[in-house]
Write a structure and sequence with these properties.
248 residues, alpha/beta, D-Maltodextrin-Binding Protein, domain 2, 2 domains
Length: 248
């Protein structure tokens, strides 16, 4: 009887366990585990499945019917486009604001700020693809406003997402433009501010407002709404702040 009760309980639990499929901008990959852990304390029976990628590529997947419930983009452009196409249930909301940083495996004189990348010793610069990755677009904007873009554009090595760009910055390139949030990952904390990295002057680019939408796939999924509300909560904002984001 005890075994039968256990089996019935497990069957009931599985039937009522929810699943939320989230299309997630790559820059949030460093904070998502902590966000999921906190959410799980509130909703232990809900499984959150994450698909990481560049915001442009994830948008293309959604346009082609990918079964995501929530889209957490690296900017507002893509969520706005999905909403206008009636592929989202909610108007895009800003869940956090990202910041740019310049990173190198090797020590540099970062007191020079962004002008450092124009030095002859910097032969390869990692940057996210500005056509599909909002952080790449912000990097180009910062370089243009600093009057450096034309001088250095031939040095670019493009990553298809900001996560790939981080890898390139410390392997294939001498330096790279990355999401500041990456530097708060435990694996990245050996890099020292002022020695290996510096925050890019935020006056050089428009704020990277990151948008979230609840997609049509989530119409009958209350667990998706729970996760959506959680990402917009004060508790989630405190986690984003911990990872170098500018919270609202």
């Amino acid at each position: 009887m005890k075994k039968l009760f256990t089996l019935l309980f497990l069957s009931f639990s599985l039937l009522h366990a929810g699943v939320v499929n989230v299309a997630l901008a790559a820059n949030v990959s460093y904070a998502i585990d902590e966000l999921k852990t906190l959410f799980a304390k509130k909703y232990p029976d809900t499984e959150v499945k994450i698909t990481l990628g560049g915001s442009g590529k994830l948008t293309a997947q959604i346009n082609h019917g990918a079964p995501y419930d929530i889209f957490m983009s690296a900017n507002m452009r893509y969520p706005n486009a999905l909403y206008k196409q009636n592929l989202a249930l909610t108007q895009p909301k800003i869940y956090t604001k990202g910041a740019l940083a310049i990173l190198s495996l090797h020590p540099h004189d970062f007191t020079k700020g962004i002008t450092l990348i124009a030095e002859k010793s910097i032969r390869r610069i990692a940057i996210a693809n500005p056509r599909t990755a909002p952080y790449g677009k912000a990097s180009v904007e910062a370089l243009q406003n600093a009057k450096l873009y034309e001088k250095v554009k031939k040095k670019f090595i493009y990553g298809e997402s900001i996560a790939q760009t981080v890898t390139y910055a410390v392997t294939a390139a001498d330096i790279g433009f990355i999401a500041k949030s990456a530097l708060y990952s435990p694996k990245m904390q050996h890099f020292k501010e002022g020695r290996n990295w510096i925050t890019v002057d935020e006056k050089l680019y428009r704020p990277i407002a990151q948008g979230i939408v609840l997609l049509k796939q989530a119409k009958d999924n209350p667990d998706a709404k729970h996760f959506y509300d959680f990402i917009l909560s004060h508790e989630a904002k405190m986690i984003f702040k911990k990872y170098g984001y500018n919270t609202l």
